[in-house]
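FAQ

Q: What does a record look like?
A: Structure on top, sequence underneath. For example:
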């Protein structure tokens, strides 16, 4: 019995000792003094500043860290500090989690952080390290498995020592756009960090190709490389990595790739490829990615049909197919994607039709169907999408009225219906969507009256665009009405007669556009007080404004970038915008005086258009300093005098110089040879006394050269291969004093005039874009010129980029007309009239099958009219009067329609339409065996003249109707007006 008790007592004691030992080991150890001290010194090396945080939920974790002397008990143990993780056995600091802790300041290798050599996890994301470099001492933290330095303001090269952290499983350096990875660095990183599961380097400047070694990263589950400057071909096998769940390589525009045949074994959940160039069709096998929840292939150059297999991805919650060239019908299988919360199909080329598949996607919060050839009425199925926050149906072919049921979408914050054919009035219920922040109804056919006081219901509204409808706005508002603080207001063409009252108290506006209204009288003084600190774009063009209640020396908006006051009736001196201004357009007014010296402070100017005023004096020399930023300089139709200002003295971006219709004297400054971006040069109607500026032929982008009506003299000179005018399409040397022969080599080498491309009608212009959140404001400057066409001087307010013309009339050129002109097969206008040419009309002109206007009048040409000219089936104007031509006038095709004035003053010509008959019917001129049909498919919309009689009459009318209907706008604008069009100065007196 005794021995049994002894044994029991011994076992009890042993158990107690074991329990005590276990309890001792289970109790966490206090952190080491050296590490506690290192952490406190780390804390003291930074400012704890809320400005360093962009997160409203930021937490100042290190503010809880205190030393032994500052507190008692648990608070002095660093293992209990916020953001600090310790090993429970050893007490060493193994984790530091300080994301969004508002740390601000620089960090270097001497920082005590790098004494924490036991660290396994380090997160310093969402702080601000003042653009310091990642210290090379990071290599001392050899136990690290997780490193997160994203959104932390690092810059410079990523140190090679980081690549030695071979245990890293997670690495995130993203959103440090000043951080760089040297050319071979990406490959070294991938080769050394072979255990990586998550690699996030978005917005790091990598600027290299994709290392092929990535295809061996079999453990990789997450790869984010957005906006890294990657280029070359994306390895197709990366899509097939066995463990990959998340892949994002968006916004690398120089990266190209191909999608593989996807397999059902793929684990991909997220695939973001936006901005990569694929230029192929989306494979049907995309439907095998059964785990996929998010797909973004925006702006990837995908073509062809959207595969119906996309509807086999029931887990999809995010789908963006926008800004590609998809065509055909949108597959009805998209109705199966009932889990979608985000859907964007915008900016594609689908077949015109409805969206009958839309409706089951009731969880949508964003629906973007902008510019997809969507027709019919706004689909009523949208009413069931009660969670919609953003609805974009703009730039389609929608008809009917804005439905009142939209008021049921109570979560709507953004509504885009612009650019459709919607009619009727704006339903008052729309102004009950109290969460609405953005409302775009511009460019429709809406009518009726809008009472602006209804805006007071929309307390959250910041963007309002009602422009270009048939609306009338009642701008008078109650004094007690409280209006939302608007940021963007577009009320163009809204029949306004005065500035709306609600603008009085707007102090947050960024963009205000009131153009094309009937606002009259002076600009009120209170306008200078609105949004002084925020306004960026102001457009008051095309009104009836006469001046200013109080003329400011400099306009008050110090952030202003674009100011348009053009096409008004402003009088007095030139108003000067603030130095921040990039676009300043005040053309077509009645401003007087000289350009004030204060304009020299506007060194950010990109567009300066002062044309069509009564400004005078010398142009300030400081304009030469603007060349670096300036792209448009238009001083045309004023009374400036003196020498042409020096431009392009430094590297420059000038695309347009228009100094026409002034009183400039002297020579063309040789500094223009430095304007390597110049496309459009107009110096017409001045007093320039110079020889032909052949050296302008070195400008690689010059399209338009207008030197008409000056005192240019001498011979053109021989062609030189270094001055070949490679892109010249329009040249006008008329009404000068040029002499000598025309060098045939010029025409042989004007290659841009040999092209005939009528596939897409566009106009010569330069666009200046201003980027805002959720909005791009574009200011377009249309190139213009004055030119004689069809015997009448016309002012072209915009120039089609397919228009090709030569006008050398009104000089003293002599010799024969070069046959090489016949090689310029893209020509639409050729005027060599009023010169001293002799010899025969070259038969090679018959090759100019696109020609619509040919003037060879008032020369000394002789011989017959070549029958080859009858091949020019687009010819509408023909004048060979006052020469020494002989023989029969061709009686076929359009030649039978030209008036007698076209042939008068040639005593040797006979036949219709002249009254002089030819001596013998048998002596009629020969006709070609088969007429040239080149150009018959051109998209120029000249109305065909009646092609003869009988069956030819029917053919001529039919073909004329077909071709004209294609490009009716171009036909009307260019040749539809018979009377002489006013020049810019003349138009000023006729506006109203």
């Amino acid at each position: 019995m005794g021995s049994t008790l002894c044994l029991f007592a011994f076992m009890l004691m042993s158990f107690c000792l074991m329990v005590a030992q276990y309890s001792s080991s289970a109790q966490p150890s206090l952190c080491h003094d050296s590490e506690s001290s290192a952490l406190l010194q780390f804390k003291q090396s930074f400012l704890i500043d809320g400005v360093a945080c962009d997160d409203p939920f930021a937490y100042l974790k290190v503010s809880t860290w205190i030393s032994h002397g500052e507190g008692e008990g648990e608070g002095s143990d660093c293992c209990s500090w916020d953001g600090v993780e310790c090993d429970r056995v050893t007490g060493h600091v193994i984790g530091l989690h300080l994301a969004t802790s508002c740390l601000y300041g620089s960090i270097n290798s001497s920082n005590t952080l790098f004494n924490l050599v036991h660290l396994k996890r380090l997160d310093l994301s969402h702080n601000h390290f003042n653009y310091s470099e990642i210290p090379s001492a990071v290599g001392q933290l050899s136990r690290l498995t997780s490193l997160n330095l994203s959104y932390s303001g690092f810059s410079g090269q990523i140190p090679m020592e980081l690549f030695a952290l071979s245990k890293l499983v997670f690495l995130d350096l993203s959103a440090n756009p000043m951080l760089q990875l040297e050319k071979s660095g990406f490959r070294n990183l991938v080769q050394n960090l072979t255990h990586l599961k998550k690699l996030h380097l978005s917005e790091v400047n990598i600027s290299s190709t994709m290392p092929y070694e990535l295809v061996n990263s079999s453990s990789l589950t997450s790869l984010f490389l957005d906006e890294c400057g990657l280029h070359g071909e994306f390895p197709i096998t990366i899509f097939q990595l066995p463990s990959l769940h998340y892949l994002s390589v968006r916004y690398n525009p120089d990266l190209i790739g191909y999608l593989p045949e996807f397999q059902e074994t793929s684990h991909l959940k997220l695939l973001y490829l936006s901005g990569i160039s694929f230029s192929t069709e989306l494979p049907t096998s995309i439907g095998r990615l059964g785990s996929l929840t998010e797909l973004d292939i925006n702006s990837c150059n995908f073509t062809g049909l959207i595969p119906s297999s996309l509807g086999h991805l029931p887990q999809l919650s995010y789908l963006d197919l926008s800004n590609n060239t998809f065509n055909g019908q949108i597959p009805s299988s998209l109705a199966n994607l009932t889990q979608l919360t985000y859907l964007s199909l915008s900016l594609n080329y689908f077949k015109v039709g409805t969206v009958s598949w839309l409706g089951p996607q009731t969880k949508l919060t964003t629906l973007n169907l902008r510019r997809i050839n969507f027709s019919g009425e706004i689909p009523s199925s949208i009413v069931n999408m009660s969670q919609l926050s953003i609805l974009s149906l703009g730039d389609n072919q929608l008809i009917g009225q804005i439905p009142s049921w939209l008021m049921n979408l109570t979560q709507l914050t953004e509504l885009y219906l612009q650019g459709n054919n919607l009619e009727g009035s704006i339903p008052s219920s729309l102004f009950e969507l109290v969460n609405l922040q953005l409302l775009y109804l511009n460019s429709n056919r809406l009518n009726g009256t809008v009472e602006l006081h209804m805006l007071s219901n929309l307390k959250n509204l910041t963007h309002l665009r009602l422009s270009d409808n048939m609306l009338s706005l009642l701008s008078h508002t109650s004094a007690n009405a409280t209006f939302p603080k608007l940021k963007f207001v577009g009320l163009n063409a809204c029949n306004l007669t005065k500035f709306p009252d609600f603008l009085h108290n707007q102090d947050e506006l960024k963009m205000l556009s009131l153009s094309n209204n009937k606002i009259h009288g002076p600009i009120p003084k209170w306008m200078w007080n609105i949004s002084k600190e925020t306004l960026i774009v102001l457009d008051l063009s095309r009104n009836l404004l006469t001046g200013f209640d109080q003329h400011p020396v400099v306009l008050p908006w110090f952030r202003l970038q674009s100011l348009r006051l053009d096409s008004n009736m402003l009088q007095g001196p030139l108003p000067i915008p603030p130095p921040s201004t990039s676009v300043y357009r005040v053309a077509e007014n009645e401003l007087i005086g000289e350009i004030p010296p204060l304009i020299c402070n506007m060194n950010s100017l990109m567009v300066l258009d002062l044309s069509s005023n009564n400004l005078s004096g010398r142009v300030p020399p400081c304009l030469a300093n603007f060349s670096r930023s300036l792209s448009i300089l238009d001083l045309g139709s004023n009374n400036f005098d003196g020498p042409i200002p020096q431009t392009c003295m430094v590297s420059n971006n000038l695309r347009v110089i228009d100094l026409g219709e002034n009183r400039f004297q002297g020579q063309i400054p040789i500094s223009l040879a430095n304007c390597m971006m110049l496309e459009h040069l107009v110096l017409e109607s001045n007093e320039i006394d110079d020889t032909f500026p052949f050296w302008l032929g070195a400008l690689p982008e010059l399209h338009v050269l207008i030197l008409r009506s000056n005192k240019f003299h001498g011979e053109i000179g021989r062609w030189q291969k270094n001055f070949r005018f490679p892109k010249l399409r329009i040249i006008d040397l008329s009404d000068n004093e040029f002499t000598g022969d025309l060098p045939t080599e010029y025409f042989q080498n004007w290659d841009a005039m040999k092209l005939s491309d009528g596939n897409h009608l566009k106009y010569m212009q330069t666009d200046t874009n201003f980027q805002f959140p959720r909005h791009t404001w574009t200011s377009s400057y249309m190139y213009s010129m004055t030119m004689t066409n069809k015997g009448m001087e016309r002012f072209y307010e915009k120039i089609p980029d397919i228009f090709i013309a030569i006008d050398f009339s009104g000089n003293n050129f002599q010799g024969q007309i070069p046959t090489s002109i016949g090689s310029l097969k893209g020509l639409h206008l050729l005027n060599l009239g009023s010169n001293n040419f002799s010899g025969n009309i070259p038969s090679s002109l018959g090759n100019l099958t696109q020609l619509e206007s040919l003037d060879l009048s008032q020369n000394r040409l002789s011989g017959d009219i070549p029958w080859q000219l009858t091949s020019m089936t687009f010819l509408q104007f023909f004048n060979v009067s006052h020469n020494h031509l002989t023989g029969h006038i061709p009686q076929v095709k359009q030649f039978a329609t030209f008036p007698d004035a076209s042939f008068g003053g040639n005593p040797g010509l006979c036949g219709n339409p002249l009254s002089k008959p030819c001596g013998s019917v048998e002596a009629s001129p020969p006709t070609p065996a088969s007429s040239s049909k080149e150009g018959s498919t051109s998209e120029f919309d000249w109305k065909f003249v009646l092609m003869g009689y009988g069956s030819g009459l029917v053919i001529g009318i039919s073909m004329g109707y077909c071709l004209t209907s294609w490009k009716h706008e171009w036909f009307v604008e260019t040749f539809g007006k018979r009377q002489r069009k006013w020049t810019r100065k003349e138009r000023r007196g006729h506006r109203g």
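Q: Is there anything notable about this one?
A: Helices lie at 2-26, 33-44, 185-192, 744-749, 951-966, 968-975, 984-988.
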